[in-house]
Amino acid sequence: MTLPLSAPPMPPGSRPATRVAIGGPAARRAAIAAGALVLAAATLPWWAPAEQASAWMREFVEIACYLLFAMMWNLLAGYGGLVSIGQQAYFGFGGYAMLVLGNFAGVNPFVAVPLGALAAALVAVPVSRVAFRLQGGYFAIGTWVIAEVFRLSVANLAVVGGGSGTSLTALRGIARPVRELATYGLALVCVVAALALVYAFLRSQRGLALLAIRDNEVAAESQGIDVRGTKLAVYVVAAFGAGLAGALYFVGNLRISPDAAFSVNWTAFAIFMVVIGGIGRIEGPIVGALVFWALNKAFSEYGTWYLLGLGLLAVVVTLRFPRGLAGWAQQRFGLNLFPTQRRLLD
């Protein structure tokens, strides 16, 4: 006689393990579409007409810089709750570190781009000891002051051109088509890697801990989360990403100055992109960067009126779409390209 199979008895006082799911069929379809887009972008120089390919590559590098910087600000403020208006300090530091390595140390400028980002991350460690003494609005203003210290310090260094800036002479011997192709390839790798790493981090337990810290630091610490260590890690990672965006921007621009590198406009534009796209969402900076790039190309020649229009647009979107355009699309059509929310299955 065959006895029916049954599950072993559970110990007294125990309960079944809770199963948690992240993502779904829509996310898998989005991953396939994203892979197709990356493949098309990677092969663009070989299938697009030469003149159009050159213009498209330059535009993509510009969008990539906007996206990287906005993504890092979103990670810092949208997910970590650390609202900074001084991230341009690391944007400019990464750019100048790349220039110094290229012009004076003989390092290939394209190799100097990640090295400049690493230099920005390293300098963020001692800077954080000052910035983390401040809380809330004082932290935001303090980071702005730190960025101004960076700008004034670099403006007084004659070796890098002082206040008028200098050019990236290390690329003089490289032909323009080769330079554009290398910059484009580097930008594509940086964007894909940044998106993948941020997405993987936010789906991990450390990402969940970061969200807990953002919502309530006291409650998170009471659950055993290393609040200070997690905030420091996110701050340094955001500095690395900002430095990467700065180094990439100026290796494509070929010229750098303190006012261009450390301008508060960089953080203002990042806030605009994140607010327009949706703060606290990976899709937010992507949508915001595309919108900002399109507006910049169409209306930047209007100067002050253009900046005023950006501000009014941000106010309108905030009132009409509190979750940003990406949040509205998710709510209206169920589009969630980078799901990080946990769903209980049991």
Automatic annotation (TrEMBL):
<keyword id="KW-0812">Transmembrane</keyword>
<feature type="transmembrane region" description="Helical">
    <location>
        <begin position="232"/>
        <end position="251"/>
    </location>
</feature>
<feature type="transmembrane region" description="Helical">
    <location>
        <begin position="138"/>
        <end position="160"/>
    </location>
</feature>
<feature type="transmembrane region" description="Helical">
    <location>
        <begin position="112"/>
        <end position="132"/>
    </location>
</feature>
<feature type="transmembrane region" description="Helical">
    <location>
        <begin position="181"/>
        <end position="202"/>
    </location>
</feature>
<feature type="transmembrane region" description="Helical">
    <location>
        <begin position="30"/>
        <end position="48"/>
    </location>
</feature>
<dbReference type="Pfam" id="PF02653">
    <property type="entry name" value="BPD_transp_2"/>
</dbReference>
<dbReference type="GO" id="GO:0015658">
    <property type="term" value="F:branched-chain amino acid transmembrane transporter activity"/>
</dbReference>
<feature type="transmembrane region" description="Helical">
    <location>
        <begin position="263"/>
        <end position="282"/>
    </location>
</feature>
<dbReference type="GO" id="GO:0005886">
    <property type="term" value="C:plasma membrane"/>
</dbReference>
<protein>
    <submittedName>
        <fullName>Branched-chain amino acid transport system permease protein LivM</fullName>
    </submittedName>
</protein>
<dbReference type="InterPro" id="IPR006311">
    <property type="entry name" value="TAT_signal"/>
</dbReference>
<feature type="transmembrane region" description="Helical">
    <location>
        <begin position="60"/>
        <end position="82"/>
    </location>
</feature>
<dbReference type="InterPro" id="IPR001851">
    <property type="entry name" value="ABC_transp_permease"/>
</dbReference>
<keyword id="KW-1133">Transmembrane helix</keyword>
<keyword id="KW-1003">Cell membrane</keyword>
<keyword id="KW-0472">Membrane</keyword>
<dbReference type="InterPro" id="IPR043428">
    <property type="entry name" value="LivM-like"/>
</dbReference>
<feature type="transmembrane region" description="Helical">
    <location>
        <begin position="302"/>
        <end position="322"/>
    </location>
</feature>
